[in-house]
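Minutes, project check-in

Agenda point 3 was the complex the collaborators sent over. CS summarized: two entities, 567 residues total, and the question is how they sit relative to each other. Sequences were read into the notes so everyone works from the same version.
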Amino acid sequence: MVQDLIVASGVEVAYGGKRRLNGERVGGVKVLHGVDVRIGRGETVGIVGESGSGKTTLGRALLRLIDIDAGKIVFDGRDISRLPERNMRPLRRRMQMIFQDPVTSLNPRHTVRRILVEPLLFHHVAQDGADAERRVRGFFDRVALPLSCLDRTPHELSGGQRQRVGIARAALLEPDFVLADEIVSGLDVSTQAQALNLLKTLTRDLGLAMAFISHDLSVIRAVCDRVYVMQLGQVVEEGRCDEVFAAPKSRYTRLLIDAIPLPEIDPGWLDRDVAPELD
Amino acid sequence: MTAPILSIRRLSAVSELGDAQPILRNVSLDLEAGETLGLVGESGAGKSTIVKALLGVLPRTVTITQGEILFEGRDLRTMPRSKTRAIFGDAIALVPQDPMTALNPGRRIEAQLTDGLWLRRGVTASAARKRALELLAEVHIREPERVLRSYPHQLSGGMRQRILIAAAFALEPRIIVADEPTTALDVTVQKQILRLIRQMQEAHRTAVIFVTHDLGVVAQICDRVILLFAGAVIESGPTSDILSAPRHAYTRALIAAGPRYDRPDAGLTPVPEALVAELRLEVAGTGR
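CS then shared the predicted structure for the full assembly.
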């Protein structure tokens, strides 16, 4: 049995509305209706759902990037649900995020060197500038980036290279947990395959736990150990990927799997039943 | 066999921007009436350049250096503007990629659906409205009256894409160019939209050029496929042949790169860099 790293139970999040003096929310739209998620050490967990299912909100709540209205989030045995930011700080290094769009998540005026070295110094992972530089250089091979990229700015890199800089920035801090939110959705299949393979190797070699958010079940199947299927702010199914994909229990999961077109001729596919109108 | 409705002959183009490499190299393709042709390739393959050329919206920085674009036998490149007006956006219509940005956020759906009808067909406002309602019904939109009064932000992505499909078919085009029309949508909605495009195409006998990078989508909707790399045609043929017995190593590599939920151990093999380098050399000589 894997040891739990993150245990979230009964998580509720609402947006909008007003707050009373005691912090209680009045009105607003509830987007998470009591979600339970466990992520074990070194485990890669997929969170899949369509737009509006709350998967991004859940991811952000796990990192305490947004506050939760109800429920509890325990990180490495410590309840962080209502921890003030001052006390969150030391934990921030241990929980990192890889962003969907590497163009907007990397400072366009900083060199790749600065983007990677600064967090190492900020979080006191490296003792000094020379140590940070050494760590960054040592890592470049692993993420298949040429050293010549160090002095370039993000716009001088290819899409795949930018994405790998984002991955390197997160992994260099030696976190216990990374959140990857739709990180391959804009990439060509070949670049996507490279990024996914890299993530698989890194999580294995560094013993990283990862929450991998995606709308694409094929990608989830390729990289995740377990999966949570979300619909309208609730988890409708969870389980080991091999089991969920072989025999989905929820009708919604079945629907999502059947809606994926496979690259082989299947004359009846288009006419087979599709989702009821969700408009 | 009848003459193809669209025939691109040895089309080459260069861009003034970047490294002055050709962006299209000797591209030839035929589109038969009523068929769906898949245009497939990674970014930089030249898919959008072909789309823009077919709709007459190539940027000034792109120059066509040779070749012909024959629509019903007449070359669109040499045709005067007065004639192409009846073709670009009319006989050849576009279903755009992103339903979130393709509609004007400040105008009601009714205005956007009827523009073409009165500007290009001169129908009266009430006749245009009637036709718009018919079109919305045809793309399975419930409450078409309400939708006509709506602004785009009041509708979901799937509904907006249906409206764009309705708009594309409004002028009874001969050819629909669908530029990655489902990449921004959820999979279940994608399936509905693919099915809708197929239904509309059969009902109107329209030919479709379907641009996509998703070989799964290609398999389900395209009769034939053209695979592009760096502006050159790498392989073309019936979809079943391309997918089940690809001749070119690049086609095989692309198929092997995509993850598959039904075969977790297959897929995720990036296109080998050596193959990409080899292909670049192979196409470098063409289209100059």
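Noted in discussion: Residues 261 and 267 of chain B are 9 Å apart (CA to CA).
Follow-up: revisit at the next meeting once the mutant set is ready.
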